[in-house]
Amino acid sequence: MLNMGGPSTVPETHDFLKNLFSDGDLIPLPFQSILAPIIARRRTPQIEKQYEDIGGGSPILKYTKIQGERMAALLDELHPATAPHKAYVAFRYARPLTDETAREMKADGVKRAVAFTQYPQYSCSTTGSSLNELYRKGKTGDFGDGVEWSVIDRWGTHSGFIEAVAQNIERALEKFPAEHRSDVVLLFSAHSLPMSVVNRGDPYILEVSASVNAVMDRLGHANPYRLVWQSQVGPSAWMGMQTGEALKGLARLGRKRVVLVPIAFTSDHIETLYELDLEYAKEAREHGVEVHRAESLNESPVFIRALADLAAAHLKNHSGGKIGPTSVQLGLRCPGCTNATCGAQKAWFARAGR
Ligand SMILES: C=CC1=C(C)c2cc3[nH]c(cc4nc(cc5[nH]c(cc1n2)c(C)c5CCC(=O)O)C(CCC(=O)O)=C4C)c(C)c3C=C
Ligand SMILES: [Fe+2]
Ligand SMILES: [Fe+2]
User: According to its UniProt record, in which pathway does this protein act (predicted)?
Assistant: First the structure.
């Protein structure tokens, strides 16, 4: 289960940020190995404070472990041919990092593995970065010799995922008086991307939009909605409109009932618990807006069942020869991609599945 990860405790914040700013696939910096520790050190106190305010750390590891264990148990029933299944977590910037997980899988003697991204929608800066890291460790045998790999690299329109999000929206809508419910604006919010990434042809914006469209289809388009973007960092241009600005704009237009919907994360972390709940929702309430947030998927049984269904279908179709080791879409690099590792990674996964 691949994801970005987050510091489980406040003192782990510095190392998390150092790993994050050292990742050239996420943030390409000149003199990266020198600048990354400097930026991380400067940013640490502010981000530590945010993790303190959300209860002393990121819950992403806790939820990923729960999701993984329950998914593996369901998978034993859904696809007994490959049982027993075991879920491992590999985070990109926080423990357990890929090399720690590789050691564990090697010690367990794993011979068949599925790299299962926990980002529903694909971006080179998220899933792409995790796959590049897996490729670097895999090609040097860190996971052991002769491991057969395949990849679940995106699933943003999977019906179970869409259903789980839709149910959480319906629960949030119930918090509004029945007579106002159909006026409530659904404000889908996803982590933004720098325009430099969007403009090289990254598919994330399109895939998040497809998720939103699928959720709205499931809800029968009963409410007005927008997709907006949060958490931009630094001075460069990022995809907009920004979530905070959108809430203020809606207040100005007199649209004072809003459900905020996180659509690109599967569990709570700083972006939902701090940015959405403590910053934006609070500010919006000051502008007289009634805001409720759709819960993150966290322990949603509908969502965990969706993960198991995805994995079962993948294992069945891959071993039946119906699909290759990766999706067809993963094989296409962004038209503007100049990162040689992306090309080598795709070629390696295409071979590692045979
Ligand atoms: C779909 C999810 C995410 C995308 C796309 C994404 C792109 C992206 N992020 C940065 C820079 C930072 N992100 C940071 C934190 C962070 N980012 C995501 C998800 C996506 N990022 C999550 C889930 C988290 C938080 C983890 C948690 O435990 O809560 C941070 C660190 C926090 C901070 O310093 O503000 C940075 C920096 C870039 C540059 C980028 C696209 C290229
Ligand atoms: Fe981010
Ligand atoms: Fe790329």
Answer: Porphyrin-containing compound metabolism; protoheme biosynthesis; protoheme from protoporphyrin-IX: step 1/1
Find out whether 71 and 8 touch, Cβ atoms under 8 Å.
no
Residues 6+ apart with CB under 8 A from 234: none
Count how many domains the chain has.
Answer: 1
Q: Which residues pair with 181 in a beta bridge?
A: none
Answer left, alpha or beta for residue 56, where phi above 0 means left and psi between -120 and 50 means alpha.
left
Q: How far apart are CA 93 and CA 97, in angstroms?
A: 7
* 162: three-class secondary structure by DSSP: helix
Query: Quick check: is 304 in a domain?
Result: no
| pLDDT confidence bin for 158, thresholds 50/70/90 | very high
Domain membership flag for residue 253:
yes
ipTM of the complex: 0.91
**Is-catalytic flag, 309?**
yes
Three-state DSSP class for residue 284: helix
User: Looking at residue 273, what is its pLDDT?
Assistant: 72
Domain region containing 212: 159-293
Is residue 249 in a domain?
yes
The pTM assigned to this predicted structure is 0.96
Domain assignment present for residue 219? The answer is yes
Whether 158 is catalytic is: yes
Mutate to test the pocket of ligand 1, among 191, 211, 236, 270 (most ligand atoms within 8 A of CB): 191
CATH number, domain with residue 211:
3.40.50.1400
